[in-house]
Design goal:
The protein has 182 residues and is α+β, with helices and mostly antiparallel strands. It has helices spanning 21-27, 31-34, 44-56, 96-114, 129-137, 162-176, and strands at residues 6-7, 11-15, 61-67, 72-82, 85-93, 119-125, 141-142, 146-148, 153-161. Strands 1, 2, 3, 4, 5, 6, 7, 8 and 9 form a nine-stranded mixed beta sheet that branches. Helix 1 (21-27) packs across helix 3 and helix 4 (96-114) packs antiparallel against helix 6. The longest helix has 19 residues, at 96-114. The chain starts with 5 loop residues before the first strand and ends in a 6-residue tail after the last helix.
Length: 182
């Protein structure tokens, strides 16, 4: 959990609170989101419990993404920390081209620069071309599709490294902040 918000030009990231449970569950149950995300088949009360436990867990960051009108527009996180590596995911966002990309960039920056991680990784459904394109926008090292026996799907693992982040941050910032006031 973080106690300070992470501010960008388009979005703000904050640690999820129990007050965010209904939103964070609803966005993960929207049909457009669950086509390629595991649908959460739980109640709001169970989501409240999960957020309560998550806020106390070391090495687990679950962010609520808010636009400049303070409207909740997404969720994402860093989790499954193993040494200097963590997962980057739990992503469900509808903040538009710049907002979604800025939220992901802010999360990467937090992981690499604030927490000092060396690698961020996750997986994506192999047929989720939109998500693959999104992750590749940030320079993902994308593996070939492989059958994930646990999830019973074809997935692609991907990762980012801290040593490449400065270049990624500069390139991505030029695109998402083009023509934007500071």
């Amino acid at each position: 959990m973080i106690t300070e918000n992470i501010f960008g030009r388009y979005v703000t990231l904050s640690s999820a609170t129990v007050e965010d449970a209904e939103f964070s569950l609803a966005i993960r149950q929207e049909p457009a989101m669950t086509k390629f995300l595991p649908r959460l088949e739980i109640s709001v009360a169970q989501q409240v419990e999960w957020i309560s436990r998550q806020r106390e867990a070391a090495g687990d960051y679950f962010f609520i993404v808010r636009n400049k009108k303070a409207e909740r527009v997404g969720v994402l996180g860093l989790y499954d920390f193993h040494g200097d590596t963590a997962g980057i995911g739990r992503i469900a966002m509808k903040g538009g081209f710049r907002g979604n990309r800025e939220a992901f960039l802010l999360t990467m920056r937090f992981g690499f620069k604030t927490l000092g991680l060396k690698k961020l990784s996750d997986w994506v459904y192999a047929e989720n071309e939109r998500a693959i394109k999104f992750f590749n926008f940030f320079g993902a090292h994308m593996a070939e599709p492989d059958f994930d026996a646990r999830r019973k799907i074809f997935s692609r693992k991907f990762f980012y490294t801290a040593e490449e982040f400065a270049e990624t941050e500069e390139r991505v910032s030029k695109i998402i902040y083009a023509d934007s006031p500071r």
